[in-house]
Structures are given as C-alpha cells and as structure tokens.
Amino acid sequence: MPNVAKYAHVNSGILKADDESGGYNDSDEATIPVVRIARKMRGGSQSWLVEAADGFHYVAKFRNNPQGSRTLANEWISHRILRHLGIATPIIQRLKFGSELISANPDLVMHFGNRAARVEAGTHLGSMFPGDPAETAVYDFLPDRMLRDVANLQDFLGTLVVDRWVSNVDVRQAVFFRGKPRVWAPCVAAHGSKRAIIALMIDHGLSFGGARWEFSDAPSSGIFGNPIVYTVTASKACVRGWVDRVLYFPERVIEDALSEVPDEWIDGERGELESLGEKLLTRRQAVAQSVDRALSGVFARP
Ligand SMILES: Nc1ncnc2c1ncn2[C@@H]1O[C@H](COP(=O)(O)OP(=O)(O)OP(=O)(O)O)[C@@H](O)[C@H]1O
Ligand SMILES: [Mg+2]
C-alpha cells in the first residue's frame, strides 16, 4: 500500500517513470491496469471505486457512461489546467480494464433506464482516492464551521475562474478529508506537518458544456453550493490574480493535455478536439467578464 510519502511525490509529480519506488510520473504515458473492483459510487456517471496495479485506489468513470465518452476527455483537460495552476485536485489516470477482470465482476454494469450495459474492456478514467478507502473518511459536504477551516479554501476561487473559462455547466464539486496540506495542497502557505481539512476539486466532466463541446456563460455555472468558500477568500486582488493566470495560461499545457486524451474517449473526433482547444485559448480574453458575472450573482444572494 502506498504511504503518505509516496502521495507527496505523486502530488508534486517528481517521480520518474523508471523510479524504483513505483514508477509514477504526473505526465506518464502509461495506462495502469486495474486489479480489483471495490464498490459502486453515487452519481450520474455511475462510477466505481477500484484498486489499480500501482497500489492506489481510483474512482473510475467509464467510456460508455450515461453522460457520454467526451466527459472523460473533459475531466482530463480540466484536471491538467487545475494542476498546472497548483489547485488541489486528485490526479487523474488512464486505467486499463481487462476482459478477464470484467468477466470476473458481473456486477460491473451501468444502468440506462431499464437497460443494463456492461463496462467495456479498454481504457477508462480514474480519479485518485486520497488514501486508503478503508482508513480515510472522505466527505462530499461539510457544515459551515468546518468549511471555513479548510486549509486550501482559496482554491475554490481559482477553480471558479477555471470553471468559467472551460464552461463547466455543472455546479462545482469537491471532496473533503483530513490530511497534510504539504502533501495534498502544496500551494498553501506552510502548515508544518499538521493535519488539516483539505478540499480536492472533483468532477470536471461537464466542462465544455459536457458532451456538447460548446462554451456558454450561464450565471450559475461552476459555482459551489455554499457561498462561504468565496465570501471568505474573494478579494478583488485575488480574483484579478486568478484571472491573469488564465489570461497568460501557457498554450503548451493545453496542447499536451489534448494530445494525452486517448482516441477511445473521443470516437475518432481528434479534429473537433483540436478545435475545442483553439476556442478555449481564444476564450481566455472573455474570462474576466464571465467571472464578474458569476461572483456578482454569488454576492447578491441573501
Ligand atoms: N478522487 C476521488 N476521491 C474520493 N471520492 C471521489 C473521488 N472522485 C469522486 N469521488 C466520489 O464519487 C462520487 C461521484 O463522483 P463524481 O461526482 O465525479 O461523478 P458523477 O457521476 O459525475 O456524479 P454526479 O452526477 O453526482 O455529479 C462523488 O460524489 C464523490 O463522493
Ligand atoms: Mg459529480
């Protein structure tokens, strides 16, 4: 089982593929085989918790999920953007599900109305679980008092700016757990080795309008359900800082992210994906206005 030190390496992306301690690299080309199916998770994409050959657990989303295979590409690209900006989000990997594993797990199905579909063998997406699920409690929601204590609360503001840029038409979602900020949220000012509540941004599947691959600016898109995460952190200077980081976001990071998306997730639509990337880069100019609109909605709430 990987230890905390290994998560620290993983999160700072410093292990190389040939490193003897596990072969991990943030920009690894590898697809990691899944070795065990654990349990079904909640949610519209009908994801499953699985264990992979690298010893980590992942929440796996499948190419043939009810929200469409493009949502996997969306997750990948948004995750690359968030990580480049130093915003805490689980590492996402390409996971390989072999046909033997699928045959040995007849429960591994998704339901579309009254029809059940087997998960297809091949490459799917995994969002790394922050620790051992048998020992680490992970929550989808926190009461206000605990939310104010989240060590990386300012990441919600950065993520809002990204969500407006990529037109995430979902509400913003995160998971919360107790861990060491220096491992999980390395951009937070020093906390020593003390544990704190960490938020990891999850579920970017409805970026780019979901399966539509369109940009829009609906006022409530990408907003987290509890405005405390913005009211505590959103000074004008901070908003400006995040908007500027998007404005000068390196094109190379987007190009690399697009090239890493497996063909299996986009059904041969490489041209459409390239065009999405070009529109995304052009759209950097429109982000300031879109963020202002979203935040004025948040602050106007009673
Ligand atoms: N990396 C992760 N670590 C721990 N838990 C996770 C992780 N990713 C997802 N989850 C859990 O799995 C659930 C489903 O994940 P997610 O929201 O990404 O999928 P979804 O099917 O799109 O859900 P929904 O339709 O509810 O938005 C989350 O509510 C969360 O509890
Ligand atoms: Mg979700």
Helical content stands at: 25-40%
Ligand types: adenosine-5'-triphosphate, magnesium ion
> Going across the major beta sheet, what is the strand order?
1-2-3-7-4
Shape summary: globular
Secondary-structure-based class equals alpha+beta
- Cα-atom Rg, whole angstroms? 19 Å
Order of helices and strands: HEEEHEHEEEHHEHEHHHHHH
Give the N-to-C terminal Cα separation. Answer: 47 Å
Number of helices: 12
Q: Quick one: how many beta strands?
A: 9
Oligomer: single chain
Q: Look at the structure and give the mean pLDDT.
A: 90
Low-confidence stretches: 14-27
Largest sheet: 5 strands, mixed, barrel
Strand-residue proportion = 15-25%
Summed up, the domain count is: 1
How does this model look, in words?
Helix 5 crosses helix 12. The chain contains twelve helices and nine strands. Helix content is 35%, strand content 18%. Strand 2 and strand 3 form a beta hairpin. 38% of the residues are buried. The protein has 302 residues and is α+β, with helices and mostly antiparallel strands. It has a five-stranded mixed beta barrel with strand order 1-2-3-7-4. Strands 5-6 form a two-stranded antiparallel ribbon. It has a two-stranded antiparallel sheet with strand order 8-9. The chain has one domain. The chain starts with a helix and ends with a helix. About 5% of the residues have low confidence. The protein binds adenosine-5'-triphosphate and magnesium ion. The site of adenosine-5'-triphosphate has 19 residues, from strand 7 and strand 8.
